[in-house]
Model the fold of this input.
Amino acid sequence: MFAHPTKASHLKSKARFAGGLFADAGHAELSTVIFSNACSMAKLNRVAVSGRGAPRGLRYTRIGNFFDRTPGALRGIPFCLDVTSDEYRNLWPIGSEPWSAEIEVFHNPFAHHPLPFEHLPEATHWFDQDGETVRRSFYETSVLWSQTLSQSDTDSPPTLEQLMSKSPKA
Done:
């Protein structure tokens, strides 16, 4: 299953909100929309835990979907990783989860005062290039969605299959 780009003048809802916030100069005073799907207490814990600050007696497992860079892909790539593992830490060049992971910056091509990419160098930037929306990522790995499970280290580690059967479908 793959996505195909389509033009839409309104969002698909009963309210019929106009689509395309950055489709014309009507919102030129807005330079960017900055978004994070990971601004949470779990993120605060994971940054410390992956940076070798894990409290004794606890295990932290992150489950979710990585962004699939295959052109047109509609689904992410499932994962289930121990936050203290080298496999998890090596997802980022600094060897632990950075604060800037999962920050998305959507640039307005009509902005009166564009935000320079250099102001948020480690964010993922979405911008117009020759009429097409392009994505530029600092990190090779991007997480679409995730949950973090904290449990006693004496409990059995969960598997991807166990957790996916209890998680939202993405």
About this structure: The chain is about 15% helix and 25% strand. Residues 41-53 form the longest helix (13 residues). The chain has a mean pLDDT of 89.
